[in-house]
Amino acid sequence: MAAAAAAAAVAEAAVAEAGRGGGGTEPRQERNRARGWTGAERSEGRRMEPGEELDEEDSPGGREDGFTAEHLAAEAMAADMDPWLVFDARTTPASELDAWLAKYPPSQVTRYGDPNSPNPEPVGWIAAYGQGYVPNSGDVQGLQAAWEALQTSGRPVTPGTLRQLAITHQVLSGKWLVHLAPGFKLDHAWAGIARAVVEGRLQVAKVSPRAKEGGRQVICVYTDDFTDRLGVLEADAAIRAAGVKCLLTYKPDVYTYLGIYRANRWHLCPTLYESRFQLGGSARGSRVLDRANNVELT
C-alpha cells in the first residue's frame, strides 16, 4: 500500500504536465483526479466470442486462471507510469478531435509500442478530457492508511465499510467500464464517447491500448461521485446516447485505490451496477441493475 500511495503522490505532481492534448503524450499521468485510473481495468483476459457479454464475476484485468488482485494492482501501476495519449479539450480546439481519433484508433495503438502501429513507444492509456475537467483526488493517502488500519484491526471488510472509508476521505469518483474486442466496434464506441466528452455530455474518459495478447480492451467513463446515483445514471444515459450498446459495469475508485479487483481475498464484487442496452425499450436506452440488492433502477 505504501507503494500505491507513493505512486498516487507522483501522479498528483504530474498535474502540471497535463493539458497538451491534440494527440500528445502525458508521462506519469495525474491519474485524472488520482481517480484510480489503473491498468487493471484493461482487459487482457481470455478472448471473447463475437456478441459474448461479460460474466457477472468476470471483471476486467486478466484471466480466470490465476491472475490475483495483487497481480492486477502491479500491472495497474506499470500502465499508469507509462506515457498516455491525451486529447485535452481545455487546450485543444474541438475541431481537431476527428483527426486525433483517426490517428490513434485504440484497436491499433499498442500497449508496448510497435514500429508498425501509430505509437512506436509504449502507451499506458488513451484519454479525453472535457473542457470542465478539474482533477480532484480526495485524500487518497488517508484512505490507504485507514485501509491498512482496518486490515490489522481484525474487523470485517464489507461493501459498507469501504463506502464509509470513501466518504470519510472524499475519494468518491467511479467509472462505467465498457469491454470490447479490438476492431471497429471498439473504435466506434471510443469515438462516440470521446465526442461526448469534448461536447460536455461526459467529463473524462480513457481507453486501454491493444495488448500483445490481443484480448479485450476497456473504456472507462468517469463520474464525480459513486454515491450520487442520479449522476451515475446520467452518465450511463450519455454513453448509450453515444451509440454504445454492450454491457456496462460500474466500479467505484475506492476499490481500485485499495487494490481490490476480481479474485480478491475478501470475495468482494468490485462493481456496483450493470447496464444492459434495451432495444426499443425506454427512452434512456438501457436497464440498470443494482447488483448488491438485485434491484432494477431504470
From TrEMBL:
Region (Disordered): 1-66
Biased composition annotated in UniProt, kind: Basic and acidic residues: 41-50
Taxonomy, superkingdom: Eukaryota
Protein's organism: Erinaceus europaeus (Western European hedgehog)
SUPFAM superfamilies recorded: eIF4e-like
InterPro entries recorded: Bles03, TIF_eIF4e-like
Pfam families linked: Bles03 (PF08939)
Listed name of the protein: UPF0696 protein C11orf68 homolog
Family: Belongs to the UPF0696 family.
Biased composition (Low complexity): 1-18
Database matches in Gene3D superfamilies: RNA Cap, Translation Initiation Factor Eif4e (3.30.760.10)
